[in-house]
């Protein structure tokens, strides 16, 4: 079996990449994608811990996190589109946030 | 384990859900949209009734993942009252029925948070609260640039949610369970690295939502661009549930006391010092609310039941005073939202100036007001648990805070030339609500023993 350290290290690296992307690429869509990357990195941690402990709870939580992330994406994209329609600069989605 | 699924236990959760659905149905027909307001208040009153009926049943567990104890019932009743106030401040302002339905669902999310016993339910309820709150905020047209502020809050909150999930996953990894009590039992033997890291990340996520220093940058920027109902919601309800989450978590898990003491001192100092130099009213309110979170954390650090009671007192005082101040400010029409506009307000609107003065004195914690009693309780807890350094910082902070609140009052009475005025044609519901809150607050400050009884109810039966 794969040692626990490998998937944990991978997910922590992915999570840190998400944080870096959030602060370095200041465009709305990219920041949004960075957040999704962070959530998915945490999901990887959850799955590997659940496998390690032999507990089903972690797997269940992963499904809930995915559902929440989907709801977040739906609401988030709706708000982003509303924002782009209402703002004077038409390239707001790909411009840097002030 | 005996899981009780009787209807009485579920009613407080059924009513808001049911009535929000009715609101959405009413939203289908433009002619029916006025019904949304009615459904909202009826739903909240039913919830209040169902919660009050729970007093005889606590403490028990429902559905295997919720604690029904005095903390939940007390917090639920407080939350319902706060949402009634928020609704009353918005009567006539929110025309569409779907906005009332969303607000009820936000309330449902917040209510579940208060009872959550395991991290799964806590996370789902927290996200339900946050996502629907953002959706509700997006409807507002008032304020400088509300939709931009909404996007900003959404990105910050989603970023914080990433930390919360990572924290929960490491807490799960350390104990092999999502139940707070189980995690606490595992940890008491030997806290592992996974546990420490997980708790830290979880706290970072919650601290973002609470706008605790150093995660407070979003607060002033979101507040300054948004409308007063949203400011009241963010400054009151979101902090209320954030503090409740911390209370629940540290009731079961060992508290990293030094960390929290440092954060509390930093939060109140940065909040108050930054509020000193603000020229815009909404930014001043933002930093003032940050400073108040510092005091709430100070009560949490006490960690015992007396600390929880002090926190309950402080929550009663802070939430309703802030609602009153948001209500008064909502009445005025202001051009630039600058504090100079308040110059000479007492000449134009003497009664409103007096109301605002009472609220500001309460926020500053000047002796006859409720603010003094609440602050005194928090200081007492810090003194008894031996947090002398924090106590000194807090007292110095109260002095700094008194300065900028009093400067605002002086501006209203001593100076001339402001342009702020109250357009009398609107704002009657807001005025009536504010008067109700003021009467309640004054009654509590005249009879402090009522306040004592109210806050001791919260800790009478904790699971």
Q: How would you describe this structure in keywords?
A:
heterodimer, A: 98 residues, mainly alpha, Helix Hairpins, 3 helices, B: 463 residues, two-stranded antiparallel ribbon, 19 helices, 2 strands
What is the H/E order of chain B? Answer: HHEEHHHHHHHHHHHHHHHHH
Radius of gyration of chain A: 17 Å
CATH class of chain A: Mainly Alpha
Low-confidence stretches of chain B: none
Query: In angstroms, what is the radius of gyration of chain B?
Result: 21 Å
Overall pLDDT of chain B: 89
**CATH 2nd-level architecture of chain A:** Orthogonal Bundle
List the total number of helices of chain B: 19
Mean pLDDT of chain A, to the nearest integer, reads 88
In total, the number of domains of chain A comes to 1
Tally the beta strands of chain A.
Answer: 0
The main sheet of chain B comes to: 2 strands, antiparallel
Strand content of chain A: under 5%
Number of helices of chain A: 3
Our measurement of the CA-to-CA distance between the termini of chain B, rounded to an integer number of angstroms, reads: 15 Å
The portion of residues assigned to helices of chain B is over 70%
What order do the SSEs of chain A take from the amino end to the carboxyl end, as H and E? HHH
Strand content of chain B: under 5%
Unreliable stretches of chain A, pLDDT < 50, 5 or more residues?
Answer: none
Structural class of the secondary structure composition of chain A? Answer: mainly alpha
- Taking the alpha carbons of the first and last residues of chain A, their distance comes to 48 Å
